[in-house]
Amino acid sequence: KAIALINSEQWNSLLMGKTATVELGEKKFSGIVNYLGYKRVKPTDRLPAYEIHISFEVDQFIPAEMPVTIVIKE
What we know:
Elements: E1 2-6, E2 19-24, E3 27-36, E4 50-56, E5 69-72
């Protein structure tokens, strides 16, 4: 699963269940938004945000906390 933080302008209940692409370098994995936080979290170095989870399957090991790009289909 990929975890990201979105700001209040990006938060929308319609994101739940949307298809998404998780990009790691040149590799792309198909996924789906399966969690949308309703409570703001406050990371130490950023403004308050909401957590979002994208579940996806991979055919290789990806280390935890590896930076990825997430594209959610509209």
